[in-house]
Amino acid sequence: MADVNRGNRPLSPHLQVYRPQLTSITSILTRITGNALILAALLITWWFVAAAAGPEAFATADAVLTSWFGKLVFLGSIWALWYHTLAGIRHLIWDTGAMLDIRSAEMLGWGCIGGSVVLTILTILIL
Question: Which end of the chain is more exposed for a tag (fewer CB within 10 A), N or C?
Answer without folding.
Answer: N
